[in-house]
Each structure stands twice: as C-alpha cells, then as structure tokens.
Design brief:
The complex is a heterodimer of chains A (102) and B (211). Chain A has 102 residues and is mostly helical. Chain A is built from 4 helices and no strands. In chain A, α3 (73-82) crosses α4. Chain B is of the alpha/beta class and 211 residues long. Chain B has a 4-stranded parallel β-sheet with strand order 5-2-1-6. The chains are: A mainly alpha (102), B alpha/beta (211). The A-B interface holds A 39, 42-43, 46-47, 49-50, 53, 77, 80-81, 84 and B 63-70, 167-168.
C-alpha cells in the first residue's frame, strides 16, 4: 500500500491513517460524481463549439431539454469522443426541427 | 576550423545567425514526448493581442479535443509567427506597462509595451498566453509547447504544420470621434499623395470616449 514511512509501520499511526483513508474515500465517492459530470460537460462543450460561432454547450443542452431528449451527459460525452458524427446528427436534428416548428 | 558551407554544424544543428533563435526553439523538444500531437501554426499578423492569446491558450491546453483530461497535458504544439506584427488597440502601446519587483526595497521596475516590442516582441505574446493558462503544475509543460517567432521563418519546416484559422469575430464599429479622426487622416493622406506610408495599420486608434 502507499502508506509511506511511519504510516505503515507504527500501530497508532496506522489506526489514524486508516480512519483518514476511509473518510476521504467516502468524501471522494460523492466528489467523484461531481468530478465526472464536470469532465463530461467540458468534453461535450469542446465538440459542440466546433459547430459554429456563438454555439456552445449551454445552447445545445437547452435544445435537448426542449425536445425532451433524455440522453445523460455520460453517454453524450462518450458519443462525442468515439463517434463525433452522431453528435452532429443530433445537432442537425435540432436545427431542422427548429426550422420546421417556426 | 570547421569549413561547413551550409548553415548546419557537423552534427546537423543549425549554426550562424539562425542558430541562437532556433537553438532555443528546438531546445526543449526532447522533453515533450508523445508525438501524437499536432503542430498548429498561428499567424499573428494583424490579430489583436488578447484575442489571439485566448485562442492559443485553449489550443495549448488541449481544450479543442474531446479527449481532454484535466490531469494530463494533451495540448498541441503551437507555433506563432510574425510576433512583431501583432495588433494593439487603444493607447496600449504607450500606456500599457509590464511591472515587476526585483525583491529589493523600492525596486519596482516597469517597461512599456513599446519598449518591450523593440526589445523582444515574443515576450509580449508569451506573457499574454501564460497569464491565461491555469496556474497549476501543467503550466510549465504547456509553456514548453509554445514556440513564438518574430518573423515568418521557423526551424520547424519538416514537421506536419497545420494553420489555425481564427474564428470569425464581430469587430466593433469605431466610435464617432475616432471615425472622424480616421476620415480626416485619410483625406490628408490623399492630399499629400503616396509620401506618407502607414505601415500596415497596426495602431487603429479606438479611443474610448470618456463618459
């Protein structure tokens, strides 16, 4: 394990370090959900911005919510990395339906 | 004495006047592994300083790739050309000062943009970009990926270079006082003929109207 020096050899310090490790594990399990959502949002933003000036993540997500498309961010980010064209297809669908609605 | 006719030393390193700039340019290349990154070329001629720097910093962080990871530096190599032709708006050439403190009491040094440009125009862009990057452990690595050159020549001719097209920008129309000044200057230039040569219209004086 990566408990360095006295933290893996002395009984009392081991007990303390174990408590700290468990605390940070619990804390970070909640943080993990936040961190990953952040990462997905950044990644979706990068791909979406290529689609034109003044077009960004916020507008894209707004369109998705209007259409009631319930794709979650994790999947959208994976689509963005692996199959960039599919995001563009979603974007085109949005644009097309917007024109027909108006 | 070495009698090489070409501008290359015996072990294929450039020599002569090209040497100092290009040696510095080729210097840290060994520390950058992963040649899966692209070489993007930015042409600074006529671009406004801050807007160009912000685009460079996004490319340098790797934020235009969908595989962006915040704990890993994945930015592209950025080569900036024509640093001396960068555009500055307003009165910044005379009024913008770079200040630093040497540590000794009372020794706050300052240098205006104009002096900095005459000394080393690459520093202007480098400072602008560096101050736009996030201050974390990756900042120095990102700085190593940024190469700035004063003019058009660079020693990276053999790499696969891709020019970077700046996104279209909504240029604000000139304030009425500045526009009138511009028209007056144009009329004067027409009257005097071709003698007055303005170099490249770097200094568009968009004077802010004080309310």
């Amino acid at each position: 394990t990566s408990f360095r020096g006295a933290h893996s050899r002395l009984t009392q310090t081991i007990a303390q370090q174990k408590i700290r490790a468990l605390v940070s594990a619990r804390r970070d399990r909640d943080r993990q959900k936040r961190d990953f959502r952040r990462l997905w949002i950044t990644r979706i933003n990068t791909v979406i911005r290529k689609k034109g000036v003044y077009y960004n993540y916020s507008k894209f997500i707004h369109e998705l919510y209007k259409r009631q498309l319930l794709l979650n961010h994790k999947i959208l980010a994976q689509i963005a990395i692996l199959n960039r064209n599919f995001i563009y297809m979603i974007y085109n669908e949005n644009i097309k339906n917007e024109d027909s609605k108006e | 004495r070495r009698q090489t006719g070409a501008a290359l030393n015996s072990d294929n390193r450039p020599s002569g006047a090209v040497a100092t700039t290009s040696r510095k340019a080729l210097a840290g290349l060994r520390r950058i592994d992963l040649d899966g990154l692209r070489w993007r070329v930015f042409d600074a001629k006529g671009q406004v300083l801050g807007r160009l720097a912000s685009q460079i910093s996004t490319v340098l962080q790797g934020k235009d790739k969908p595989t962006y990871t915040p704990n890993r530096d994945d930015g592209d190599m950025c080569v900036v050309l024509n640093a001396k032709d960068i555009g500055i708006t307003g009165r910044k050439l005379t009024d913008k000062y770079y200040r630093w403190h040497t540590g000794y009491v009372g020794h706050l040094k300052e240098r205006s943009l104009k002096d900095q440009m005459s000394k080393d125009p690459t520093e202007v862009i480098r400072k602008a970009v560096l101050r736009m990057l996030p201050r974390n452990k990756l900042r120095d690595d990102r700085d190593r990926k940024l190469r700035i050159f004063t003019s058009d020549e660079h020693p990276f001719g053999d790499k696969p270079l891709e020019p970077y097209i700046m996104p279209p920008r909504q240029v604000r129309e000139m304030r009425p006082r500045a526009r009138r000044a511009l028209i007056r200057a144009q009329k004067k230039a027409e009257q005097q003929g071709v003698t007055t040569t303005k170099n490249g219209k770097k200094e568009e004086e968009k004077v802010e109207l004080s309310a």
